[in-house]
Amino acid sequence: MEVPVEEPHGDGKNRRPVVLVVDDERVIADTLSAILSLNGYAPITAYDGVAALELASLIPPEVLITDVMMPRMNGIDLAINIRQVAPDCEVVLFSGQAQTVDLLEPARLAGHVFSLLSKPVHPAVLLERVAKCLTAGGVTAGRSTDVSAEHHRTFRSGGFAGAEG
User: Fold this and answer.
1) Could you tell me the pTM of the whole model?
2) 133, 104, 111: which is closest to 36 by C-alpha?
3) N or C: which end of the chain has fewer CB within 10 A?
């Protein structure tokens, strides 16, 4: 699968905030990315936590939206680790599992605070939460990525994909 790797440049008028969407259920990840893309964001998509960390090191996101229950690396561990490569990244966890709140407790006690949404996520709720994260994270100061089509390189890997911008 292909990921557009944007080259930051220019005066910023074509800049859109980067949102990393992670879910091992590909249809959910791809659908959320499509919704974000249609609403002015530059989504990048990963299908597991390990691939998401690799992708975040290439394209640091402003917001991470991740499922909690995934193979290889759960969303809570991803959220904690992503701040090593993207320290200002805002995190939104989502899950359809009742035990998610219990899983969050050790992270909370260690000082990690994450926003939590329940699956299924209504598009309006998702967009509202992302907008709040971006306001809280200071993206309005210009920490975003240029998505001009003529400046894309392609990164290939089986673990993630990018939405066309």
Assistant:
1) 0.75
2) 133
3) N
